[in-house]
Amino acid sequence: MQIYEEDQHLNDLLHLPCPSCGSQLAYSAEKKKISCGYCGYLEEVNTANDQVVERSLNEAIDSVAEYSPEEIDKKVCKCDGCGAEFMVESNIPKASCGFCGSEKVNVQAFDHQYIKPVGIIPFYISKVEAEKHFTKWINQGFFHPNKLKKLASMENLHGVYIPFWTYDAQTEANWSGEAGYHYNETIRVNVNGQMKAQNVSKIRWQYRKGNLKHFFDDVLVVASGGLKQKEISKALPYRLEEVVNFDPRLMIGWEAEVYKLQVDEGFQVADKIMDDRLRNMCSAQLGGDTQRNLHVHSSKHSQTFKHIILPLWICSYRYQNEIFHFFINGQTGRVSGKKPISWFKVGFLILLFILFIIGVWYLRESGVFRK
Length: 371
Ligand SMILES: [Zn+2]
Ligand SMILES: [Zn+2]
Prior knowledge:
The protein is an alpha+beta fold. The chain is 23% helix and 39% strand. The chain is built from 7 helices and 16 strands. The termini are far apart. One zinc ion binds next to loops. Residues 18, 20-21, 23, 36, 38-39, 41 line the site of one zinc ion.
């Protein structure tokens, strides 16, 4: 009986044998299909998205509070390819057999989490394409060292399915503030006993108030343990209308992560993003050349969320013994990362600017501008 239970536990990993030749299938970003590396068998990705639905946020937060998660541990798995037994960490989705190299997905890693993903965007940017996007990106911009293109060596480029939250909310804001308009006024001033006309710029202030309603749809928050929202911000957005039903088969051959940021912690991030955008919208309604005393009182209701998995290439490159991280959107190829600044170039440009100012001043003094 004991052995039987263990045996059942051994079959938990998702592994896809090819229906045509029996070897292993994996998801291929080049072909955008589930494919067999040996016989060329291809399987279309199901594009249905009927499971990609939002849930009430308040209900989820209440039930999360009552939930006590299982402890993270290791479990023994048996490879159905070669029969070897190996250990898999219960919260890591990627599992590969160290003996025959076949790759599997530990679907239980997602079951382990309280909230399960409802949608996924498969990788569309292959490794080769990701490398091209890196080369193009590293060559852009003036203020970087010339040697960068030649010396930057990419290290450890890997595709990871990253957990995200998306949040929706209906918001209403009451705002008030003062819009300022610039105007010029001519005043007469006493200069050495003589009255002279002088132009002064002034601001006319106008008090206004208003009300604004806005529905926020799919505010995206990264739920990964290691990644920061700011780090990947330039790699955003994703085309979220292309999210399909969550299918762990799309993860075979890829790394994947389960969420670390809880659903309520994620909402705090989204809340701030929404408040900032609301303030900008209120400011736009207030108008004027300049503004002061803008007060915004906002309320949110009908908040909903969903948990989705999105593709990201994670990589670093080394330049002069320093490591720079960058990220490539696995759907669109947009890059987010840091590049070293050439202080020599910046200094040179500042020097050029100073010389220009001195030149203009000299020409004025020497009377070139006078008729
Ligand atoms: Zn095959
Ligand atoms: Zn094996």
